[in-house]
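Contributing new complexes? Match this layout with S-adenosylmethionine.
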Amino acid sequence: MRIDVLTIFPEYLAPLDLSLVGKARSVGLLDVRVHDLRSWTTDRHRTVDDTPFGGGAGMVMRPDVWGSALDDVLGLGRAGDAEAAPDGVAPAHLLIPTPSGTPFDQRTAEALAGEGHLVIACGRYEGIDARVAEHYRQVGAEHGGVSVTEFSLGDYVLNGGEVAALVLIEAVARLLPGVVGNPDSLVEESHGSSGLLEYGVYTKPPTWRGREVPDVLLSGHHARIERWRRDESLRRTAERRPEILERADPAELDAADRDLLSSWGWDVGADGLRRPRVTEGDPSPR
Ligand code: SAM
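Output block (do not edit by hand):
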């Protein structure tokens, strides 16, 4: 997979040399290229921003600078006239971090892990002129060669898109074959195929500051361990993220899951799950 990141702070992406992502890069599983947006400026001051039309605080990133940079990195040539991608250029996915984008989640990471070329455009100031996303969306719709997704890390505002780029790259890269040493460790994680949160995990020593590891995990009884972990996943999800359970497909629940959820007051019907009404002073589903 190739990932291009465009930013006015290339140094911000230095952590991509570390840990599993750094290793994936060094062995050629992942080709990450970080570009300084200012390389595409044409004035002496290397200006990338200007005042907002309509007035107001802050500065907006200029579409002409972004357009030159993205045309080059996306391999679209001078796409100011919405030209098609040249033949033989693999379609790229332009990802624009913004608090007003679609929430980024594990399903998005999985979908992106199946693609060949991602381009991340990191905004700063009040963000990138809105015509940039519109333009490349139109180019993609009319001529192919690029798709565009504006994505958000969550309902808060960061200073720039670099952290969002780091998050996206790490979430996607660890799903690429060969990046995580033992691929089994990806299977039962939070937000995996079951959609549930992961159960609590424990290691040595078996007693720490008076706290014991649950007996069942020391029993060596695989079926009982599996059932305990499933129960813990359900319990954590019900307690911490009940909205995830409410979106779950009831057909994915076995009889023990249903009994457990019912014992916590959940309504488990064929058409979905509904959390119990919280009575004052008892927010726990237990
Ligand atoms: N004025 C923008 C707004 O209110 O939506 C916020 C701009 S923010 C200060 C500057 C840049 O940080 C954005 O262009 C985006 O690249 C990034 N950013 C900030 N919050 C983000 C979030 N929650 N998710 C993804 N990117 C974010």
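Reviewers usually confirm one structural detail per submission. For this one: The first helix runs from residue 19 to 26.
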